[in-house]
């Protein structure tokens, strides 16, 4: 019977590059685990599975360093907790204002926001929330009374940008008869204003009469290319909310016309005409050329 010494086992193992790499990776994982146990407080581990702890620090937030590798910067998740506080009183009425200055230097808008507050009060004070744009126009987001109490109490609450109380205060414009306008009509809580001309909605947006404009992607990009000075004053949100398909209807007794139209469409697709038009009007993802 032959026996293998530990030294021989060690020598054979060191000859395997995969074995050495495996030991190195295993050692790194063990060392990382030991460092985490030593340096991270126990309370942090206990809060890991607590959903309330992730509201201010969402799990799905993309790391900040990805902006170093992107041509268009995406908004970072930021927490503002040092507002400029101003208090004015007029008799029994006390007005406290918390103002947060935000230098927003990104190519797209944030998905949402959360306002967390705690207030000590008596009676039923009024909470109002607004946003002052860089051009000085003020958007009223929220106006609500806090729960009534006849004794001094502390009220804490989180207000989300998706709350209906905020959505119903925003006035959104759209051209009547378009898919955009039909989308707004589906939600009775949304305040909407219809326009016969898309350009009139854009003009009201620039002048602060409405808060946003919802338009069809292709029509919006066409209008933008024709009126670039106007679009320098507003920001397009690069988010397509829904998809739709365009079709041509024919009478059943005209099969020859159907064949002619299909042949013409195939020709402009094959010879690159459709691609040239797509590029000329900078349609991007707003309109997809069929393959």
- Please describe the biggest sheet, giving its number of strands, its sense, and whether it closes into a barrel: 3 strands, parallel
Lateral arrangement of strands in the main beta sheet: 8-7-9
Distance between the termini: 71 Å
| Number of separate helices | 10
- What's the SSE pattern? HHHEEEEEEHEHEHEHHHH
The count of DSSP E runs of length 2 or more, i.e. the number of strands, is 9
Based on secondary structure, the structural category is alpha/beta
Overall description:
It is a single chain. The protein has about 290 residues and is of the alpha/beta class. It has three domains: about 85-165, no CATH class; about 170-245, D-Maltodextrin-Binding Protein, domain 2 (3-Layer(aba) Sandwich); about 245-290, no CATH class. About 35% of the residues lie in helices and about 20% in strands. The protein has helices spanning about 5-15, 15-40, 40-45, 165, 180-185, 200-205, 215-225, 230, 255-270, 275-280, and strands at about 85-90, 95-100, 115-125, 125-130, 140-145, 150-160, 170-175, 190-195, 210-215. The strands form four sheets. The chain has a three-stranded parallel β-sheet with strand order 8-7-9, with helices on both faces. The radius of gyration is 30 Å and the shape is flat. The mean pLDDT is about 80.
């Amino acid at each position: 019977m032959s026996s293998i010494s530990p030294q021989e086992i060690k020598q054979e193992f060191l000859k395997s590059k995969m074995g050495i790499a495996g030991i190195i990776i295993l050692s790194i994982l063990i060392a990382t685990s030991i460092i985490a146990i030593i340096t991270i407080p126990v309370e942090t581990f206990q809060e890991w599975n607590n959903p309330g702890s992730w509201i201010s620090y969402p799990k799905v937030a993309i790391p900040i360093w990805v902006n170093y590798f992107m041509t268009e910067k995406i908004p970072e998740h930021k927490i503002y907790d040092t507002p400029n506080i101003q208090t004015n009183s007029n008799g029994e009425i006390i007005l406290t204002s918390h103002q947060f200055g935000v230098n927003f230097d990104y190519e797209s808008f944030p998905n949402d926001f959360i306002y967390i507050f705690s207030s000590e009060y008596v009676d039923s004070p009024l909470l109002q929330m607004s946003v002052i744009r860089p051009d000085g126009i003020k958007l009223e987001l929220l106006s609500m009374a806090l729960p009534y109490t006849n004794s001094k109490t502390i009220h804490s609450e989180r207000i989300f940008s998706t709350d209906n109380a905020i959505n119903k205060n925003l006035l959104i414009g759209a051209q009547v008869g378009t898919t955009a306008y039909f989308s707004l009509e589906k939600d009775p809580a949304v305040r909407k204003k219809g326009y016969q001309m898309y350009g009139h909605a854009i003009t009201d947006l620039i002048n602060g009469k409405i808060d946003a404009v919802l338009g069809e992607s292709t029509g919006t990009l066409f209008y933008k290319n024709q009126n670039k000075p106007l679009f320098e004053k507003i920001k397009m949100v690069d988010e397509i909310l829904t998809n739709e398909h365009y079709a041509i209807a024919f009478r059943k007794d005209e099969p020859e016309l159907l064949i002619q139209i299909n042949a013409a469409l195939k020709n402009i697709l094959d010879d690159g005409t459709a691609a040239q038009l797509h590029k000329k009007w900078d349609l991007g993802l707003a309109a997809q050329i069929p393959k």
